[in-house]
């Protein structure tokens, strides 16, 4: 990637509100779009792309303004991820996961811990990665005096090789307690494997990682005081917030697919020789498909925005989050996750119906949108999200907080 960032990012003032930061994300997307298909094929480590995110200021979007951050909230972060993902789903995912790992200190940690992490992250423009895969219960945490040692392997570690710091997760030896800690990504004993070779989201650096006695002080164990974890209901918001980040880049990828396809239809598609129309844009079935897909996408975008606002109320008063309010929010998130998955898959596959056979050429790169959505929507079965909604409607049951609900 050789495209340089717009000069006004350095010479002009930073955005001052949510609208301005979403516009900045749109500018980032415009830069990424210039060679998105080529970068997807190359599959190179996205160092330049992460540098672009830093230069734009988006990496410190959630950081405190007093330490150089933008001081924005999650409703803006979701929209920013959606905008970036229109051009490049991989970079949108990296940015969304970065926000999640940055927020992890506030989610789990003590006030002293998260204030320190957020200040340092904003001042130093840290880019976060995470070696946190709850299905792989294969990292053990042992004590060594005032330190902890993380040992084991994680199958997935999104953002690994392009991160400044990495969130680690493991189980404290002899207990069932999960320990989270943030360490420098170049820590001794932390080895990232270049083994991410999937059909989609190819630039997310989501390969495996080995932890060979990675050392960090007990004081960095998030939420622990005197070696005991202090739980809050707010700690259990990890799943609904993660799922809304997923929704954000699914919808961004779908919107990008639709915009790219529409441009192709206007400029390259040929009308069918037996249709009786001179231009593809005048064919009734083409018009109908674009209208159908756009209406479905707009509907789920509106639902996503509404659910994000509902969640923001919980973030603004963490100590007031109850099992009831958390569960009700998770049901709403499950609903939008299910719809976003279905609509994104439909949009990214049906665009070929209205672009034509020539649009399948490798040079066009239209397939990357479907590959990206199809890859990540397998993260956790959408049927279980529909089940959360259905059981709540029929019995009033709220989802039990787990790693996936």
TrEMBL record:
<dbReference type="Pfam" id="PF02771">
    <property type="entry name" value="Acyl-CoA_dh_N"/>
</dbReference>
<dbReference type="InterPro" id="IPR036250">
    <property type="entry name" value="AcylCo_DH-like_C"/>
</dbReference>
<dbReference type="InterPro" id="IPR037069">
    <property type="entry name" value="AcylCoA_DH/ox_N_sf"/>
</dbReference>
<dbReference type="Pfam" id="PF08028">
    <property type="entry name" value="Acyl-CoA_dh_2"/>
</dbReference>
<keyword id="KW-0560">Oxidoreductase</keyword>
<dbReference type="InterPro" id="IPR046373">
    <property type="entry name" value="Acyl-CoA_Oxase/DH_mid-dom_sf"/>
</dbReference>
<dbReference type="InterPro" id="IPR013786">
    <property type="entry name" value="AcylCoA_DH/ox_N"/>
</dbReference>
<feature type="domain" description="Acyl-CoA dehydrogenase/oxidase N-terminal">
    <location>
        <begin position="28"/>
        <end position="117"/>
    </location>
</feature>
<dbReference type="InterPro" id="IPR009100">
    <property type="entry name" value="AcylCoA_DH/oxidase_NM_dom_sf"/>
</dbReference>
<feature type="domain" description="Acyl-CoA dehydrogenase C-terminal">
    <location>
        <begin position="244"/>
        <end position="379"/>
    </location>
</feature>
<dbReference type="InterPro" id="IPR013107">
    <property type="entry name" value="Acyl-CoA_DH_C"/>
</dbReference>
<protein>
    <submittedName>
        <fullName>Acyl-CoA dehydrogenase family protein</fullName>
    </submittedName>
</protein>
């Amino acid at each position: 990637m050789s495209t340089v960032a717009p000069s006004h990012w350095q010479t002009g003032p930073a955005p001052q509100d949510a609208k301005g930061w979403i516009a900045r994300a749109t500018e980032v997307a415009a830069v990424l779009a210039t060679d998105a298909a080529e970068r997807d094929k190359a599959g190179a480590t996205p160092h330049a792309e992460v540098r672009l995110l830093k230069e734009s200021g988006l990496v410190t979007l959630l950081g405190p303004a007093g330490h150089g951050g933008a001081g924005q909230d999650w409703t803006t972060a979701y929209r920013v991820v959606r905008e970036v993902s229109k051009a490049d789903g991989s970079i949108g995912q990296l940015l969304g996961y970065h926000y999640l790992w940055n927020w992890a200190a506030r989610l789990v940690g003590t006030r002293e811990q998260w204030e320190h992490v957020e200040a340092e992250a904003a001042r130093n423009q840290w880019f976060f990665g995470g070696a946190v895969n709850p299905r792989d219960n294969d990292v053990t945490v042992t004590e060594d005096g005032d330190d902890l040692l993380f040992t084991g392997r994680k199958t997935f570690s999104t953002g690994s090789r392009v991160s400044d710091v990495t969130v680690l997760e493991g189980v404290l030896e002899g207990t069932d307690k999960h320990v989270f800690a943030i360490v420098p990504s170049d820590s001794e004993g932390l080895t990232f494997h270049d083994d991410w070779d999937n059909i989609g989201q190819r630039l997310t650096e989501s390969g495996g990682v080995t932890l060979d006695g990675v050392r960090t002080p007990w004081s960095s164990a998030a939420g622990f005081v005197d070696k005991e974890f202090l739980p809050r209901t707010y700690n259990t918001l990890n799943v609904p917030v993660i799922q809304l980040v997923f929704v954000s880049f699914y919808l961004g990828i779908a919107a990008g697919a639709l915009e790219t396809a529409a441009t192709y239809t206007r400029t390259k598609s040929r009308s069918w020789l037996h249709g009786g129309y001179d231009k593809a844009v005048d064919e009734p079935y083409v018009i109908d498909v674009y209208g159908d897909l756009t209406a479905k996408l707009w509907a789920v975008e509106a639902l996503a925005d509404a659910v994000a606002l509902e969640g923001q109320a919980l973030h603004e008063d963490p100590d007031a989050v109850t099992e009831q309010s958390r569960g009700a929010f998770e049901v709403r998130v499950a609903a939008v996750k299910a719809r976003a998955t279905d609509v994104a898959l439909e949009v990214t596959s049906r665009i070929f119906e209205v672009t034509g056979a020539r649009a399948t050429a490798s040079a066009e790169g239209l397939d990357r949108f479907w590959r990206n959505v199809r890859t990540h929507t397998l993260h956790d079965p959408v049927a279980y999200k529909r089940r959360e909604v259905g059981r709540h409607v029929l019995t009033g049951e709220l989802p039990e907080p787990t790693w996936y609900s």
